[in-house]
Specification:
Number of domains: 1
Order of helices and strands: HEEEEEHEEEEEH
Radius of gyration: 25 Å
Helix content: 10-25%
InterPro entries: TAT_signal
Signal peptide: 1-32
Largest sheet: 8 strands, antiparallel
Protein name: Secreted protein
Oligomer: single chain
Keywords: Signal
Distance between the termini: 78 Å
Strand content: 35-45%
Structural class: alpha+beta
Length: 211
């Protein structure tokens, strides 16, 4: 009987907690596992975040073609054309603050390389690059990055009594979203040299339509 009463009290306490916080459980099913222990200490714990998914997309942000004729090798300076802009955002908001550094650190671990964790964009006021071409051929001068998009969830430790609380999902309508990117890469590609699949260089080479 005592065990049944304790379970009933716990159930009532959690229901009351949701009603007081106004966070609710949401109609959508959880997209990521919650913390392994539903109980937390609000005096010590604040939030718990998890990356639900992360998709990596090699993205060319600036590009221009260069045709180097025989006898004209040497240094070329070209103004690149913007092809796509990548901007960091969380839940569609580009005003990324220090609050999300830990979130983007988890993204870096998830994808295996460092991503931008502050407000940033690949857009550049000046996009002129200079390269030295030693052989005639058809080339592409590019800037690009690996864009990362995905979903995340956050739980907060909501107090239900002295020194005890419960993890409550703070995105009840479903997972939040994020966009970030790796450090910008600069380079040249040519028809004569194939590039590894899934790289920014391969994405840039695909723009050389005459290859």
């Amino acid at each position: 009987m005592a065990s049944r009463n304790r379970r009933a009290a716990l159930t009532s306490g959690i229901a009351a907690l949701f009603a007081v916080t106004g966070l609710g459980l949401g109609a959508a099913p959880a997209q990521a596992d919650p913390p392994s222990n539903p109980v937390c200490n609000p005096d010590r714990d604040y939030l718990w975040e998890d990356i639900v998914s992360a998709r990596v997309e090699p993205t060319v942000t600036y590009f221009v073609t260069v045709a180097v004729a025989p006898g004209t090798t040497g240094q070329y300076t070209r103004t690149l054309t913007e092809t796509e802009t990548v901007t960091t955002s969380v839940n569609g908001n580009t005003e990324v603050t220090a609050e999300f550094k830990a979130l983007f650190a988890k993204v870096s671990v998830k994808v295996g390389f460092s991503v931008t964790d502050t407000k940033s964009t690949t857009w550049s006021a000046t996009a002129s690059d200079t390269w030295n071409f030693n052989d005639p051929g058809y080339y592409g001068m590019y800037r690009g990055t690996r864009k990362v998009t995905g979903e995340w969830v956050r739980y907060i430790c909501a107090r239900s009594g002295p020194g005890i609380g419960y993890w409550v999902k703070s995105t009840p309508g479903g997972p939040g979203t994020f966009t970030t990117f790796e450090t910008t890469e600069y380079g040249t590609v040519s028809c004569a040299s194939p590039e590894p699949a899934g790289t920014v260089r391969a994405a840039a080479r695909l723009r050389l339509l005459t290859c």
